[in-house]
Amino acid sequence: MNKNQVINFIVKYHKEWINFVECYSLNNNQKKYAEDFVQAAYLKLLKQDTFDPTKLLKDNKINYQKVRGYVLSVLKSLLINEKKKRKITTIRLTDNMDIEEVVNTTPKQSMEVVYTKLEQTINDMYWYDKKMLNLYVYHIPSIRKISTETTISSKAVFKTLKRCKLTIKKELANDYYYGKAI
After folding, report:
1. CA 107/CA 115 separation, integer angstroms
2. Hey, which residues does 57 pair with through a beta bridge?
3. Exposure pattern of 116-130 as b/e (b: 16+ CB <10 Å)?
């Protein structure tokens, strides 16, 4: 069994691979070019030195399940790599910001602004939430250990920490997050 025979077997299920790319694509651009991704997967399989057709055999016949898993993993890696390449950084200008201000700020200054906002958000929390978050972040990073040390139920600790995280996410998302609204 050689690579070409396995590739010919894989090509028989071409429509299935295209459907997979269309279903699991990370953006509309990937859906539009599903055919190209499948062709790229074929080329990647042919060029791979580690591609061993004997691993895809069962009783000297090509095993569909093994082939399917292998091809889908190659397609997933292609989709993810393409998404990483096209990552775009955006800057949202507010009414009180000037374009020169944005250009002149360094990443370190930007992070200082985020940390200041984070500290302010934590300081505005209820005292119990602050203490629990402080305990979790700086001292005991385990809900079970916090529960046993403080004799507070693990469910209460979990809910408190979840509420803290959501509060922080909501406060920071208003100014610094550009994806889906939380």
Report:
1. 12
2. 62
3. ebeeebbeebeeebe
Write down the residue that tokens 């399940």 correspond to: 65
Give the global pTM: 0.44
Domains, the chain, ranges and CATH?
3-85 (no CATH), 99-176 (1.10.10)
Continuous segment of H or E residues that includes residue 61: strand 61-62
In this predicted structure, what is the pLDDT of residue 161?
Answer: 94
**Cβ atoms 164, 133 nearer than 8 A:** yes
What angle, rounded to 10 degrees, do the helices at 107-123 and 154-176 form? 140
User: Residue 11: CB partners within 8 Å, gap ≥ 6?
Assistant: 42
Q: For residue 176, what pLDDT is reported?
A: 65
Q: CB–CB of 141/151 below 8 Å? A: no
Q: Which amino acid is at 7?
A: I
- For the chain, where are the E strands, in sequence order? 57-58, 61-62
